[in-house]
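[Q] Does anyone have a clean structure-token version of this?
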Amino acid sequence: MNKRVFTIGLATLGLSLSISACGAKNSSTDSSDTATSKEYDTVSAPDSATESQADAVTADTSTSDASEKEASKSKPITVKLNTPITNDFMETTLTKASYSYELNPSDTSSAYVYMQGTDGQKYFYVEGNFKNLAGYSAEPDNSIVKFKFDDKYEYTGTVYEDSGTDINQFFSVNPLETVKIYIAAQVPDEIIDSYSSVTVDWMMDDMFGSTDSSHYQYVQEDTVQYDYQLNLKK
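[A] Here you go.
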């Protein structure tokens, strides 16, 4: 059963990123308020990034606690749009990347809950489908998301659920249930207008930090077990 959330807030993670507002609309809302979107293509991960992560994985774990944590970090797994991502607890296909002033649910024919960007910013998002393969509920929102534009400008993101009529920041997915998701971050219009490439990292632990239906812990970036990396160009 999905958790319905009508007042949505996002705490600051790493570099500051905030979501200004959410609310309900009805079918009379003028859809022309939403910014025109653009889709993007995937590209191969840069060799330098791969080499850097490989160095971290093979580091001498006896040198210091810092090097041990760096070595324990998962090496990024390069993924592409429209190609299934499968592990022991999920099956996900990311279908497209785009941007918009609002994140709207699939059904806007009546009242619905949406996410709205702040002035001078838009949501850059990756859309997809998520299926829970585990034997108990999964919470994909307990993951770490980062968008890095032109290998320089980094923004923290969030995984949202599109329940049909609502955009939910906090949600759970029942065993063998499939839901639509957005992996999104607010970024300045200047970035949207001028960038050439973006790397999206979606980092998680087994079952998003859950060891069973009653035990749960927050994912830590220095010990993530999976880092799915999507490389896009304009």
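[Q] Thanks! Anything notable?
[A] The radius of gyration is 18 Å.
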